[in-house]
Write a structure and sequence with these properties.
The complex is a heterodimer of chains A (324) and B (934). With 324 residues, chain A is an alpha+beta fold. Helix content of chain A is 33%, strand content 18%. In chain A, a hairpin with a 2-residue loop joins β9 and β10 (247-256). The longest helix of chain A has 20 residues, at 304-323. The N and C termini of chain A lie far apart (48 Å). The chains are: A alpha+beta (324), B alpha+beta (934).
Chain lengths: 324, 934
């Protein structure tokens, strides 16, 4: 596999990064950000939408902060797997990501901005030519979606990151920076329901860091991941739950790997909480409601029907573990 | 006594001169010195020398023909593989490590269509691209080739039609990879897309455009490549079964998943000879195919086998890309290198066939197995590969280790528009074996007996004949079953574990070397030849064509030579890479290498040994019968002090003729029946194995975790126990992949959806259970020092052991492999629905109360144990054929004793209506019978 050639930019400050992005945009040149490269570079090798320029965040100073309340985009996942002051729920999720080798390169920012995946898309060029391309990498053909044919408006590739749902139930905020400045929003607003757009990042913007408020840091919870092998595999489904211990009304549930975006489930939680919290019965009702609300499609290893069924089990287990 | 010397008992006087050299005859006595660079040799390792020749090693089957060749040097000892240093230090040169000066890069254009006719290929734009040095298409390679002479259906590049996505269409060589890749986009091809076939069941039907055309032998207009019918025994026995099992299986195709992708370098030397570097299991077949395809005599081709980064059967076909590299190199006049991406590896495939298997079996009121009825429809993909053999193996390798009242097999292999299936570790035997062993478990359940006892009471003894006529020699099946029963604490666990925990048994039976050398008459030419050369330095060079694919064949050969000549293994150098210097060897498949090659090596080494002993006779005056070889020294049996160094004897032997040279060969004895297909599955010896697996099943998610495996394998004699254990554990891993997570997924459009190692789920270290390898040594009379295969057989039992353990855990029989969590979950959901249970945690666990048959079986097994022991030790040499258990006389042909006992290779007309899925191929007529092409 030969990586297509690209120009690599190595800014050392956030400002420089933004100005490189700005000037490339002015010239009308397309580019990608790269952090650890464990997602982008394999995709490049497969010729999945490669760009002529790549701006690396690796040499930027001060973007790998690591604390209970703030984690920089370049914090390596390997550092998130040890309890050096960060929230235990993040440690739990990070240690379930891919393999230890990959975690040494992969970063938090990269994981949150992970490209969506689909078995019609994550394939070599010859393979994709044989299916006449797909909507997400149409190579200028305007090809249709292969998962749900006859609709070439929305890409249904699946977001398979592990850390986003845990940050969602911890009420994390993301901080985005670009040529037009810094903006901050809750993580659940960061994602955008389309496998191609994926999130709200504008061209030239990148995810700088996440922050967790004092109150949210007090939450406890659990993350349950469905996968065939205990290493390497992306989640086939993932459920995170958290609460402020003893307060059922603070319960939060988020799921991942079921749709194009990770999602919080406030409505399902609220519906269950309408009646009084009744221990295991409420957990069961909640699990059933969350299961009902997700819509996986057939584009990962395990069939969607099964993944959907497992959401109930995972939710139940996440909440049970949280209650422990 | 001329030239001999006697050493003085030690201690007295000066033993060294002032200059530090030793004084002759003054060495300390025990142990006797080698006389070489090491002053003292180690004493003979009596623990590794058989009792029959004065050592302490017990041989379970009495003496062995090679006992006299044992010196206690290496055989039976745990020796690191001789090529392991090269591998762990990164110095081993694999296919893609070969770099020749001036080389250029070849790339292959692959078909984007499942099935299409090539109307035209225009290469003018490719040729015009700067940097492109050669272009080739199907027109450059009109000659067909294939691994089996009977089914040559491949071309270097597609001629007329492409048969699957990824099939080779054309190739190009350019100065670098980027240029070659760019060139691939410049081919202008006009296609006529044809209607593809993906479902093997559809392949049984007539089609407008069969994927291949076999002329007068073509079966109607179907896509059936091979059909098989075999029936033995008395079919009336199955009419009133006491117990029966009937299972329909669907097994996904799996790939070998070897580490090294295919890679090849071709170079035409200055004299017009081709040198081809390739990681091949069967360099000789490649050699032949190259000669055919390139129209060059074989002596003008030198095939160099590089180190092989895993093969498992996936590198045992001559491959089209090897031909492409040679064609491009010839055109460009420069060396051409082609290395595959992982995707291309999956497209060339040759993995295990996706199969639909149906097994019916019956037992009579004495719990004897009255019949196996097997139907196997296997999906061959676009080409024949080894499929002709696979079609037979799916049936015939189920005829042992049990004694059967009757056996009925129908098999068919069909072409589909998918990458070709072929041979993979446990070739053809794995899927049926799984179905059969699970069937036995089910029958045991019906009869309320212990499945291990059911097996123990129905085993064929050593030195017997299967119902299909295979000659069984050594047989360690019983011991293997007993050992795993004991090791796993079976009697305390089986049907007694809580819900979600289970234990299961599975057995295996596999050939140790195919008895038929495909390309020549086994009665005239040997299967394997080994040359040995010993020069003045005393080092031993062994030339063999055996391809070491990681299984350790080089080590095995080095070990046996070192054993016979009593030399440290470091003094033995194996040369096996080049066809120019290696004697012809068929290659590494059918678990033949250690058995056949080591046998040949022993013969060659014995010849050298004879020359050495004769020289020592000249020097010492004692007849070779009274001489002992030990570490670099030959001495008088009754007084070790009288001896001569190895080097001195060697130099004596070399007088007048120079270096010693010997050639040894192995040829299997004539065996087997004469019916059609009798040669399939025939082997000079068979391996046996029994595994017990313990699993945890998460009843809510369907996730299976195999926690422990007790794995007993009868390898005859472990030449190198470390290597055998490695093979057992590795086999477990590979088999676990097939039973739990690995599958080649073909989506709704017929595309292979997971041609990469992330989505093709090979178990990781986390999924690996604790494996307790148990080596059973039955000492095979034909094997080298008693050894049999250990490379493929150990894979077989893990599948049924896990499937049976899953039943023990959750009480659900699953017959769709792999048992991915969604398959298990579906099974659980269905059971919950059928038995009206809400919570999977309330599922009942299967339990067992023994019926009155149990003591009968135990008694019979006990009786058979004594019978087997007597036969194993050749105390009882009476004939035994399958059928004795049913009361027949083994000395009279069974067909003369039983009306209805038959050996049939074609169905009777009245049987036609009742044949299974694959059997339906027999409803079709061949073209010649239809008045078609002649």
């Amino acid at each position: 596999m030969l990586m297509p050639p690209f120009v690599l930019h190595n800014p050392t400050t956030v400002e420089e990064a933004c100005s490189i992005a700005g000037s490339l945009m002015e010239k009308g040149e397309d580019f990608d950000w790269v952090a650890g490269g464990t997602d982008l570079l394999p995709n490049y090798k497969w010729h999945l939408n490669p760009k002529p320029h790549v701006i690396s965040l690796a040499r930027i100073e001060g973007v790998n902060t690591l604390s209970l309340h703030e984690i920089g985009c370049m914090a390596r996942l390997a550092d998130l797997t040890v309890e050096n002051g960060i929230h235990p729920l993040i440690v739990e999720a990070a240690s379930k990501v891919a393999s230890s080798l990959i975690r040494r390169n992969a970063t938090l920012g990269g994981n949150l901005c992970l490209d969506t995946r689909c078995f019609w898309y994550n394939q070599g060029e010859d393979w994709r030519r044989s299916i006449d391309w797909c909507h997400k990498a149409d190579c200028g053909t305007g090809a249709d979606c292969r998962v749900i044919p006859n609709q070439n408006t929305l890409c249904v590739a699946t977001y398979q990151g592990d850390i986003a749902p845990t940050l969602m139930v911890l009420d994390a905020d993301v901080h985005l920076i670009g040529p037009s400045g810094l903006r901050t929003m809750p993580l659940q607003e960061f994602y955008q329901l389309d496998g191609m757009k994926k999130n709200v990042l504008e061209k030239g913007e990148f995810l700088l860091k996440i922050t967790i408020s004092e109150a949210s840091a007090a939450r406890t919870g659990s993350y349950q991941k469905l996968r065939v092998r205990d290493t390497w595999d992306f989640p086939e489904a993932g459920v995170a739950a958290s609460w402020i211990s003893g307060d059922a009304t603070s319960l939060k549930i988020a799921t991942t790997a079921l749709e194009s975006i990770p999602r919080c489930h406030p409505d399902e939680v609220a519906a269950v909480l309408e009646t009084d919290w009744d221990g295991m019965n409420s957990v069961k009702a909640l699990a059933a409601a969350v299961r009902k609300s997700v819509k996986p499609v057939n584009n990962t290893s395990l069939p969607p029907r099964y993944r959907k069924s497992m959401v109930r089990v995972l939710t139940k287990r996440a909440v049970e573990k949280m209650l422990e | 006594m001329s030239g001999g010397y006697r050493q003085q008992p030690g201690g007295s006087g000066q033993t060294t001169r002032k200059d530090g050299k030793r004084v002759a005859g003054k060495q300390s006595f025990p142990p006797p010195g080698s006389g070489g660079s090491r002053p003292h040799m180690s004493p003979r390792d009596l623990d590794f020398i058989p009792e029959s020749v004065g050592g302490k090693e017990e041989q379970p089957a009495g003496s062995h023909i090679h006992d006299r060749a044992r010196t206690g040097t290496t055989v039976g000892k745990e020796i690191p593989l001789v090529d392991s240093n090269a591998k762990v230090t990164g110095q081993a040169w694999y296919g893609d490590d070969v770099r020749l000066p001036n080389e250029i890069i070849g790339k292959i254009l692959r078909s984007p269509h499942h099935y299409a006719r090539i109307k035209s290929i225009d290469t003018s734009r490719v040729e015009a691209l700067p940097g492109v040095l050669a272009v080739a298409t199907g027109e450059d390679s009109p000659h067909r080739f294939g691994v089996l002479p009977v089914t040559k259906d491949e071309h270097a590049m597609a001629v007329e039609k492409v048969r699957h996505v990824g099939d080779l269409v054309a190739c190009v060589a350019a100065v670098d990879e980027a240029t070659a890749l760019e060139a691939l986009n410049l081919f202008d091809i006009e296609w006529e897309v044809l209607e593809p076939v993906f479902d093997p069941k559809k392949g049984l039907e007539d089609s407008d455009e069969p994927i291949h055309w076999r002329g007068k032998y073509h079966l109607s207009k179907t896509n059936v490549q091979k059909r098989v019918f075999q029936e033995f025994g008395d079919r009336s026995l199955v009419d009133k079964p006491h117990a029966e099992s009937h299972g329909k299986w669907s097994m996904a195709g799996v790939h070998h998943g070897f580490t090294e992708p295919h890679a090849v370098v071709a170079h035409w030397g200055p004299n017009g000879r081709l040198q081809l570097y390739t990681p091949q299991q069967v360099p000789h077949y490649t050699h032949r195919a190259l000669s055919t395809v390139l129209d060059v005599p074989m002596h003008q081709i030198n095939v160099i086998r590089t180190f092989v980064g895993g093969g498992f059967g996936g590198k045992s076909d001559p491959f089209p890309h090897e031909m492409c590299a040679a064609i491009l190199a010839r055109k460009a006049g420069r060396p051409v290198r082609i290395t595959f991406d992982r995707e291309e590896v999956y497209w060339i495939n040759r993995g295990r066939h996706p199969s639909h298997i149906e097994v019916k079996m019956t037992a009579d009121e004495e719990a004897r197995i009255s019949g196996f009825d097997i139907d196997a429809l296997i999906d061959g993909g676009g080409f024949a590969s080894f499929g002709h053999v696979t079609s037979y193996y799916n049936g015939v390798l189920a005829t042992a280790p049990y004694e059967l009242g009757s056996f009925h097999y129908t098999g068919a292999r069909v072409w589909t528009n998918k990458p070709a299936s072929g041979a993979m570790r446990g070739h053809g035997a794995v899927n049926t074996r799984c179905a059969v062993e699970v069937g036995l478990d089910e029958m045991a359940e019906t009869m309320q007996v212990d499945p291990i006892d059911l097996r123990l009471a129905n085993l064929l003894p050593p030195h017997s004949r299967t119902i299909s006529g295979f000659r069984i020699t050594s047989n360690g099946m019983r011991e293997a079953l007993e050992k795993v029963r004991e090791g796993s604490n079976w009697d305390e666990k089986f049907r007694q574990l809580p819900l979600g925990k289970g234990i299961g048994i599975g057995c295996g039976f596999f050939i140790s070397g195919s008895g038929l050398p495909i390309h020549w008459d086994p009665n005239r030419f040997p299967h394997a030849t080994v040359h040995i050369q010993v020069d003045m330095d005393g080092g031993v060079t062994v030339h063999t064509g055996a391809a070491d694919i990681g299984q350790g064949s080089t080590t095995a050969v080095a070990q046996v030579v070192s054993e016979v000549l009593a030399l440290p293994i470091e003094m033995v150098h194996v040369r096996s890479h080049e066809s120019d210097t290696s004697p012809v060897d068929l290659g590494s498949y059918s678990s033949r290498v250690t058995f056949m090659n080591a046998n040949a090596a022993i013969r060659a080494a014995l010849e050298i040994r004879e020359q050495l002993l004769n020289a020592a006779w000249d020097i010492l005056g004692y007849h070779p019968d009274n001489l002992v070889l030990n570490d670099r020294r030959i001495y008088y049996k009754h007084d070790p002090a009288i001896g001569v160094s190895y080097l001195k004897a060697l130099h004596k032997a070399q007088e007048d003729k120079g270096s010693l040279i010997a050639s040894g060969a192995y040829r299997s004895p004539p065996m087997g029946g004469v019916h059609k297909g009798a040669a399939a599955g025939l082997a000079p010896a068979y391996s046996f194995s029994a595994y017990v697996a313990e699993v945890d099943v998460d009843v809510e998610t369907g996730m299976i975790r195999c926690t422990d495996v007790w794995a007993a394998h009868d390898c005859g004699k472990a030449l190198n126990p470390m290597a055998v254990k490695g093979q057992i554990i590795g086999s477990c891993h590979m088999g676990l992949g097939q039973v739990l997570s690995e599958k080649m997924v073909y989506g709704r459009t017929g595309h292979l959806q997971n041609a990469n190692l992330l989505d093709y789920k090979i178990p990781s270290v986390h999924e690996m259970p604790h494996v307790e390898p148990i080596i059973i040594e039955s000492c095979d009379p034909e094997g080298p020092f008693g050894a049999k295969e250990a490379g493929e057989g150990p894979l077989l039992p893990i599948l049924p052991a896990v499937v049976n353990a899953v039943y023990d855990a959750i009480g659900i029989r699953l017959r769709d492999l792999p048992l991915t969590p969604d398959v298990v979950f579906k099974g659980i959901e269905k059971t919950l629905k059928d038995s009206k249970i809400d919570d999977p945690l309330d599922l009942p666990s299967p339990r067992l109360t023994h019926s009155s048959l149990q003591p009968t079986l135990v008694a019979r097994a006990q009786e058979h144990k004594l019978r087997d022991k007597a036969r194993q030790r050749t105390e009882d040499t009476s004939p035994y054929v399958n059928g004795v258990l049913f009361g027949f006389d083994p000395t009279i042909p069974l067909e003369d004793q039983v009306e209805g006992w038959r050996t049939a290779t074609e169905p009777d007309p009245e049987q036609l209506a009742e044949l299974g899925l694959a059997g339906r191929a027999w409803l079709k007529k061949e073209q010649r019978e239809m008045g078609g092409e002649n």
